[in-house]
From TrEMBL:
Gene3D superfamilies recorded: 6.10.140.2220
Domain MYND-type residue range list: 412-463
Keyword Zinc included in the entry's annotation: yes
InterPro entries the UniProt entry points to: Znf_MYND
Record-given protein name: MYND-type domain-containing protein
Pfam families, per database record: zf-MYND
Organism: Coprinellus micaceus (Glistening ink-cap mushroom)
GO molecular function, a single term: zinc ion binding
Region (Disordered): 492-523
Keywords from the UniProt entry: Metal-binding, Zinc, Zinc-finger
Amino acid sequence: MAEVMVLANGVKASGSGVYLSDSLDVHILQDILDDLAPKIPRSSEFESATARQVVESASTAMKDWATILRCLESSLAEFPVIQAAMDDCLGLLSVHWEDVARWMSFFIQWASPSDVPPFLSLGCCVQIMRTIATNVDANIFKSQIASTLCTVDVLFNFLFLGDPHTPGRAGRIRLGHTSTCSIAHLYHLLSQHDVQKQSLTARLSSASLRQREAFVSSLVQRIQELPASPSDAEGLVSAAEDLAKFVGPTSFLFASGFKRDFERQKFVLNASKAIGRIAEAGVSHSVQDPLIWWYLMHCIRFMAELAAFPRWRKLSYRLIEGGIISSILYVFPRISHTDGSPKGLRELDRALTTILPFLTERGGLHAARVLGGIKSSPGGRRASWVFENIIEGTYASFDRAMVAFGGPRSVTVCCGLKVSSLFSPTHGRDMASIKTCKNCRFYFYCSKLCQQEDWVSFHSRECTRAQHKRKYRVPAAPKACHRQALIRPTCLPGSHCKPQSPPATPDHRERQQQRPSEPSFIA
């Protein structure tokens, strides 16, 4: 086995994976797993030589498994014959995965800056997890391992990992020459597929309130520390990528497993601040890579989906006003001046389409501002007071159904499900052709035909009247009791005022005299 490990670590030729697959045997793999003792020593037992030997043996087993999986995974695309050996490794690993996951959690929790095996084994644990989380649908053993709750526990322990050199900061692990955080990459990989999403949701649903708060706090702390290395353009792009990998999966978890407004608000507002920091650093360092702006707009799109929740109207307004709109106005001018791909425009379309019902409900979609080189279409309603403070001092504006950015580029927001390319110039329409649903007034369409198609296929089953309409009509003339006019049609018994009755007619006076008096329960 030592010869195989030396070959895998030292030889970088593509044929090393083939040689390793031929040399591996189930008995060899089982011997490596036998080094993982079923009982993990406690912290008070580390002073003994026996406990340290158990930990060192487990660390060596982790390194061997990481080496084998990395070597086979790197050669699998070029030599498909290695797939049988990879299946043997993953199948045996799935049988003993609970023991492997317990030792991974031990190494993560007891990581320290000294040269002890737990700290040296963190990279090996990340390598094993990355191999399992990559292409989960292509292998049944990977799917079985990734769907277990112990895998989710290992991922959460990685998120709780602190920096051993700087107490109070979140720990970051990098593999190879990449500058992106491997923990963010694992969090992104383990939340892409339906089976993994169900496992994450199940674990969060069964967690206590304190555990949920710790989970959100760990994500917020990692977001607050971005960008970690703002001295170069590559570090800023990596920080934007890490932020996108944190925001995307969290938006799904909040939508499915979290019911508290405070956690949602805390995450969105801190992510908005991180977007502002990265964008400001990108402008000051003159970053030419358009990926940084696409990553940031990608985050904004997920944040819009996270904020626009019908059950939390008041919170949605607060998040859209305090984070989403300001992030869009800050990032989009940089996207509009980059050359090439329309990915940023597509993400902007999704974000605007998501928050469109909330903007139209508050009347904030019209903002008549002409600043810088960016114009807005003339006409329209007055800007809402909700967005006056945000729009002031910026050089961007929202129109009722179009956002024009200083040139031929335009974004037409249409709620029709059959509109496949919202950012295409072919969907540009005159303001006279913009149609809105007359019932709910939440949905806008680029044409009457698109509105009719969406009504037949989808919108007729979900359309309801606007929730912001008053339940009781306030009379034009003031009455003696303002409570009666604004809150309820009749005053409460025992209140300081009495509802005014209509003038009594002769017939009405006779009926009152004939009616028996009702008992009074008020002292």
